[in-house]
Amino acid sequence: MIPLVSCTNNTSDDEKKTLTIYSGRSEKLVGPIIEQFSEATGIDTRVKYGGTSELAATILEEGDKSPADIFFAQDPAGLGALEDKFTTLPDEVLVEVNDKFKSDDKKWVGTSGRARTVVYNTNMLTEQDLPDDMFGFTDPKWKGKIGWAPTNGSFQAMVTGMRKIWGDEKTKEWLNGINANNPKSFPNNTSTVAAVANGEVEVGFVNHYYLYRFLEEQGMDFSARNYHIEEGGPGALILVAGAGVLETSENKEEAIEFLEFMLSPVSQQFFASQNYEYPVVEGVKINPMLKPLADINSPKIEMSDMNDLQGTVTILRGVEIIP
């Protein structure tokens, strides 16, 4: 069992440690649970929020002088980019987590899962109008109807998985095929889902959980729903957000305690209930609106194989999809 963190703050002010966390996850998604960690353990946190790729590059640039103790990334590609910079995690942290959601070398651990999906406008389309696989969207009939976020970390993680499943040449073929259909670019998943619902585009390539936040705020009349690609493949990837402890950290003991807390029942239920994500530890219930992981035709791929983020960026630049 993962040791549970004491919920009693017995640490005196003089003994307080401060963990520095570089978080590629937004404050809205993880800020409340990080605050709960501090309240439960007495360990203060200093959080630097930003894009996963941006923060990974910052840590690499800072090198041994980086103040970061923990890198909290929104996708496995970002974690893979820093795998050589992480310390080895103890088995007791990793034991409860499914093998496919953690580093083979025990360098990082997933904290929650997200499914790649296609969000579609329910006033314009039904599921029967959607192709069985991602290549179907390269058909010219989808010209001007697709939204995507090619600079977003999750999209780039999907392309990284796509390269692993399909190979680079087929991935370039898909990227060029979609690009030929004049897709509309958005900065992130949230704006893509909003554009689909208001009819600006008819479909978008996103992570599953953004839709549920709109449904929570605007009700079930919100004009968008998720479609999980029936034939599976990279459009149905299950990605993980996760974290690793920097080898240069001077607060490794507290950093490990942070990871234990993120994998504890209270945190896993937070990710499942508040963020509509999938838990990585058995025994935690998902939100009833979500499609169970077992019912999603997700490809079998190890998250630790998705570490070539730079190679993905090079390909996206090569086909002139990102600057």
Short characterization:
The protein contains eleven helices and nine strands. By secondary structure, the protein is of the alpha/beta class.
List keywords for this structure.
323 residues, alpha/beta, 11 helices, globular, disordered N terminus
* H and E string: EHEHEHHEEHHEHEHEEHHH
Share of residues in strands: 15-25%
How many helices in DSSP terms? 11
Largest sheet: 9 strands, mixed
Percent of residues in helices comes to 25-40%
What does this structure look like?
Mean pLDDT is 92; it is low at 1-11. Strands 1, 2, 3, 4, 5, 6, 7, 8 and 9 form a 9-stranded mixed β-sheet that branches. Helix 5 crosses helix 6 and helix 5 (153-166) packs across helix 11. The protein has 11 helices and 9 strands. The N and C termini lie far apart (46 Å). It is α/β, with parallel strands linked by helices.
Write the layout of secondary structure elements.
Layout: E1 18-23, H1 27-41, E2 44-49, H2 52-62, E3 70-73, H3 76-81, H4 91-94, E4 109-121, E5 146-148, H5 153-166, H6 168-179, E6 184-185, H7 189-197, E7 203-207, H8 210-218, E8 224-227, E9 238-245, H9 252-262, H10 265-274, H11 309-318
Parallel strand pairs: 1-2, 1-3, 5-6, 5-7
Antiparallel strand pairs: 3-9, 4-7, 4-8, 4-9
